[in-house]
């Protein structure tokens, strides 16, 4: 039976009018998400509709729809009578992010044996080490997040990759409390290298144990700094 009846085709024709706008909304959301993930838009930053709309050449309605997409992803928040702001995370948010990270990244390690995707893990480690030698700690942060996304990517699941990408962008918001990015990232460079080498050697069980300790330590470090920050406000 042909399901494309004239009535249904008429409905699709009406939907077509929405496609251009929908595509623009997603592109705007992608741009803003990328700026958040790169640390250019930090926690607490107010996102001005007028300024951003002018800079991106889009209408306020399109921008508002993009904000709704990012709010659903927990990257921005709308405050009544104040506007839209990049979210600020608290210790409970960080704890929840790390629970999810442990599940997704350990799944990647369990799928690592024989994976053709291991090269991406080693490449991210090398990029982080190179950036550290140059003293570029923002680039070290970028490489570190690529390392963890590459670990999740060992599953070969597009859904896990997309979810982890959003989760790591959200985690970037927590980095705002770290006055010294070097203090956050330098201790983990060696540990990234150790995990990558364990994976190359096929020692995935040991790599998983190391990764869990690693994530526990990273969570504790960020939460401790958050609490210190709250006490001094």
Give the key terms.
mainly alpha; 233 residues; 2 domains; 73% helix; Arc Repressor Mutant, subunit A; three-stranded antiparallel beta sheet; Four Helix Bundle (Hemerythrin (Met), subunit A); single chain; disordered N terminus
Element layout with pairings:
Elements: H1 6-37, E1 46-47, H2 49-56, H3 60-72, E2 76-79, E3 83-86, H4 91-110, H5 118-133, H6 137-153, H7 158-172, H8 181-200, H9 204-232
Antiparallel strand pairs: 1-3, 2-3
Helix pairs in contact: 1-3, 1-7, 4-6, 4-7, 4-9, 5-6, 5-8, 6-7, 6-8, 8-9
Protein name: GntR family transcriptional regulator
Domain HTH gntR-type: 22-89
Keywords: DNA-binding, Transcription, Transcription regulation
Euclidean distance between termini CA atoms: 67 Å
The CATH architecture of the largest domain would be Up-down Bundle
Number of helices: 9
**Spatial shape:** globular
* Number of DSSP E strands: 3
Radius of gyration: 21 Å
Low-confidence stretches: 1-5
Which structural class fits the helix and strand makeup? mainly alpha
Tell me the strand percentage band. Answer: under 5%
Keywords: DNA-binding, Transcription, Transcription regulation
Protein name: GntR family transcriptional regulator
Domain HTH gntR-type: 22-89
Pfam family, one: FCD
Protein model, in words:
This protein is mostly helical. The protein folds into two domains: 6-86, Arc Repressor Mutant, subunit A; 91-232, GntR ligand-binding domain-like (Four Helix Bundle (Hemerythrin (Met), subunit A), Up-down Bundle), CATH 1.20.120. The chain has nine helices and three strands. It has helices at 6-37, 49-56, 60-72, 91-110, 118-133, 137-153, 158-172, 181-200, 204-232, and strands spanning 46-47, 76-79, 83-86. The chain has a three-stranded antiparallel sheet. α4 runs antiparallel to α9 and α8 runs antiparallel to α9 (204-232). The longest helix is centred in the N-terminal third of the chain and has 32 residues, at 6-37. The chain is globular. The termini are far apart.
């Amino acid at each position: 039976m042909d399901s494309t009846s004239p009535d249904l085709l008429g409905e699709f024709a009406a939907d077509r009018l929405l496609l251009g706008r929908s595509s623009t909304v997603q592109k705007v959301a992608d741009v803003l998400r990328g700026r958040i993930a790169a640390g250019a838009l930090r926690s607490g930053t107010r996102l001005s509709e007028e300024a951003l709309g002018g800079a991106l050449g889009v209408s306020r309605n399109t921008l508002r729809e993009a904000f709704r997409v990012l709010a659903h992803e927990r990257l921005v928040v709308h405050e009544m009578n104040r506007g839209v702001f990049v979210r600020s995370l608290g210790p409970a948010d960080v704890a929840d992010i790390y629970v999810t990270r442990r599940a997704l990244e350990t799944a990647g390690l369990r799928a690592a044996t024989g994976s053709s995707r291991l090269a991406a893990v080693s490449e991210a480690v090398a990029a982080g080490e190179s950036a550290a030698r140059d003293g570029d700690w923002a680039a070290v942060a970028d490489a570190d997040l690529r390392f963890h996304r590459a670990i999740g990517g060992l599953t070969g699941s597009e859904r896990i990759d997309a979810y982890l990408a959003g989760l790591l962008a959200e985690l970037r918001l927590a980095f705002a409390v770290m006055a010294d990015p070097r203090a956050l990232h330098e201790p983990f460079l060696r540990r990234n290298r150790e995990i990558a080498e364990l994976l190359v050697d096929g020692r995935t069980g040991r790599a998983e144990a190391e990764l869990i300790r690693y994530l526990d330590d990273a969570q504790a470090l960020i939460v401790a700094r958050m609490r210190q920050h709250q006490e001094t406000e």
